[in-house]
């Protein structure tokens, strides 16, 4: 029986890789050329893949209770839990499920705001985001926010049916619901994982509360207390981001020490006429500086770097190995902006992870857990320091180091890293409740904002109705991408970063570290990446950091200077909401 199990899992690896290549190829085409035909082709390929997984999962049941070697046992377990969706046993329902997934993705990618009556000048997400990112006119911000969030209404009926079908697939494969499936992928029980996320959030919640209080005061100076009252949630459209998930774009409104060592990287990119390719080349040079391989030549001919003028595409940034053979690519609509420069470093982290584990069996061709995949690029992006930007030719000089400059820099980073934490935790909390039936379609919107308001202290800028479906305006919901990975990654990146700094021989405060060009840091990183999913995540974490538990201590150490400064600034203010 053990020998039979080994032969079975070998066939699973071969067949799933072949089907995944077909599905990934169809999905790449669908994302870079949105039409009804490409959506249909993607749905067909996904249907074939889901059908095969369902069949293999049924066959794997005969090995329940059999004593297997560790690799075979782990791969059978990963076959079961590493899925964002599982196929219903009913083939008609399976086909309907894959069709709905492709359609929701297509609606999101092609979404536009054409005014209240549908007859105005149409603006896509890229144009609307630019308003949210840059404008300081409350009316323009509100128009852009409501315009994009209206796209969710088209997705709502599809999502309601999706939940029914996806839960059917989960139950047919032994899970209570889709949320239980997702929470089973972390080498612990779903209940233990929920407790772990709460434990991690409890570590960082006080820092977030202080940041929220300070930011609200800054927005009050700009917009007044009528629009931003004391002790109340912040209106979502004022935070410089379509989803109020990261607040970096409002840094000029809350800058602690205006003009002190100001680093306007976006201005420098525009002034120096950096194009998308040059920005990506800079990202590649960071990884090669650590001793990692250059990107393959095909990366430069097959990637989507900018938005085409002749067709609809999904601009949401993503990294791919389309044929699971170091066929590395990124898909972006790159603009000469600091945010996109950081995103490039992040997406290339995915590519280098994919490259490192490419020789593993197919079921091991993934991160130890999904949060690792997201954290790698972010950890390296923490080393995108002023010194690094000077060497890259984007800054003329390294700004003088002093307390005011440090607080400015940490504030800018916290508006991205810390502000994101409750948002990233809330997305899946909402979906877990939806999949479990605790939230019904009638309360989709109210429960979404109740969760976000409680955790984030952010509220919708205008009343919402039952017709609205604001979760559908966030890519990962219609695309069915689990989101807790990003919450974990925001914490893990600092653990990875601290370990790589130690490997590079850094001494001194953690926030002052860059491990750029450290071959020892690169060696340690590569050793963890090459494991893929072959070991439980505590083993992979230990290989890089020497620790076996996800812990926010490194994040708190990094932001210690800002944390103390925020507490001083908030004395006498009405904090909370």
Looking at this protein, list some descriptive labels.
globular; 24 helices; 577 residues; mainly alpha; two-stranded antiparallel sheet
Architecture overview:
The chain is an all-alpha fold and 577 residues long. The chain is built from 24 helices and 6 strands. The chain has helices at 2-32, 36-60, 70-81, 91-110, 125-134, 138-149, 152-172, 178-183, 190-223, 251-254, 265-271, 276-289, 297-302, 338-356, 370-381, 386-391, 403-417, 420-435, 444-456, 484-503, 519-531, 537-545, 553-558, 560-569, and strands spanning 112-113, 123-124, 234-235, 318-321, 328-331, 458-459. The protein has a two-stranded antiparallel ribbon with strand order 1-2. It has a two-stranded parallel sheet with strand order 3-6. A two-stranded antiparallel sheet has the order 4-5. A hairpin with a 6-residue loop joins strand 4 (318-321) and strand 5. Helix 5 (125-134) packs antiparallel against helix 6, helix 14 (338-356) crosses helix 21 (519-531) and helix 18 (420-435) crosses helix 20. The chain is globular and about 70 Å long. The chain starts with a helix and ends in an 8-residue tail after the last helix. The model has no long low-confidence stretch (mean pLDDT 95).
| Assembly category | single chain
Low-confidence stretches: none
Range of helix content: 55-70%
According to DSSP, the number of beta strands is 6
- Along the chain, the helix and strand elements come as HHHHEEHHHHHEHHHHEEHHHHHHEHHHHH
Strand fraction equals under 5%
Radius of gyration, in angstroms, nearest whole number: 23 Å
Biggest sheet strand order reads: 1-2
Distance between the termini: 60 Å
* H/I helix tally: 24
């Amino acid at each position: 029986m053990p020998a039979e199990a080994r032969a079975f899992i070998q066939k699973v690896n071969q067949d799933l890789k072949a089907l995944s290549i077909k599905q990934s190829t169809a999905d790449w085409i669908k994302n870079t050329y949105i039409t009804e035909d490409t959506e249909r082709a993607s749905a067909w390929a996904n249907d074939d893949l889901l059908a095969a997984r369902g069949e293999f999962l049924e066959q794997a049941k005969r090995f329940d209770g059999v004593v297997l070697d560790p690799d075979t046992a782990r791969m059978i377990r990963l076959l079961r839990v590493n899925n964002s969706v599982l196929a219903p046993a009913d083939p008609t329902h399976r086909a309907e499920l894959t069709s709905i997934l492709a359609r929701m993705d297509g609606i999101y990618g092609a979404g536009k705001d054409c005014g209240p009556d549908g007859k105005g000048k149409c603006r896509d997400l890229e144009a609307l985001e630019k308003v949210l990112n840059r404008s300081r006119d409350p009316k323009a911000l509100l128009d852009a926010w409501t315009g994009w969030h209206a796209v969710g209404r088209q997705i709502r009926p599809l999502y309601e049916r999706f939940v029914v079908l996806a839960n059917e697939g989960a139950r047919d494969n032994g899970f209570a619901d889709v949320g239980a499936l997702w929470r089973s992928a972390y080498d612990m029980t779903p209940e233990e994982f929920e407790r772990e996320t709460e434990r991690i959030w409890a570590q960082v919640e006080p820092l977030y509360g202080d940041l929220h209080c300070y930011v609200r005061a800054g927005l009050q100076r700009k917009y007044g207390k009528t629009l931003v009252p004391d002790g109340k949630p912040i209106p979502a459209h004022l935070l410089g981001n379509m989803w109020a998930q990261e607040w970096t774009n409002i840094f000029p409104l809350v800058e602690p020490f205006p003009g002190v060592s100001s680093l306007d990287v976006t201005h420098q990119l525009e002034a120096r006429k950096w194009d998308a390719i040059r920005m990506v080349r800079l990202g590649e040079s960071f990884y090669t500086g650590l001793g990692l391989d250059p990107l393959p030549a095909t990366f430069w001919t097959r990637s989507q770097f900018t938005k085409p003028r002749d067709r609809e595409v999904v601009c949401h940034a993503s990294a791919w190995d389309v044929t699971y053979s170091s066929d590395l690519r990124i898909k972006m609509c790159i603009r000469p902006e600091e945010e996109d420069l950081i995103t490039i470093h992040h997406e290339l982290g995915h590519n280098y992870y994919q490259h490192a584990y490419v020789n593993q069996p197919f079921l091991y061709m993934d991160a130890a857990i999904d949060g690792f995949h997201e954290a790698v690029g972010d950890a390296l992006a923490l080393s995108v320091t002023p010194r690094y930007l000077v060497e890259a030719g984007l800054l003329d000089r390294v700004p003088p180091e002093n307390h005011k400059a440090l607080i400015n820099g940490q504030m800018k980073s916290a508006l991205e890293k810390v502000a994101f934490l409750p948002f990233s935790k809330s997305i899946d909390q909402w979906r877990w409740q939806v999949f479990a039936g605790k939230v019904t379609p009638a309360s989709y919107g109210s429960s979404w904002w109740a969760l976000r308001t409680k955790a984030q202290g952010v509220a919708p800028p205008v009343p919402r109705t039952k017709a609205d479906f604001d979760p559908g305006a966030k890519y990962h919901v219609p695309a069915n991408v689990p989101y807790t990975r990003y919450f974990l990654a925001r914490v893990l990146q600092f653990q990875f970063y601290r370990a790589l700094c130690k490997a590079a021989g850094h001494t001194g405060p953690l926030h002052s570290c860059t491990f750029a060009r450290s071959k020892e840091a690169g060696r340690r990183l590569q050793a963890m990446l090459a494991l893929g999913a072959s070991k439980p995540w505590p083993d992979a974490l230990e290989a890089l950091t020497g620790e076996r538990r996800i812990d926010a201590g490194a994040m708190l150490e990094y932001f210690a200077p800002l944390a103390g400064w925020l507490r001083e600034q908030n004395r006498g203010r009405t904090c909370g909401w």
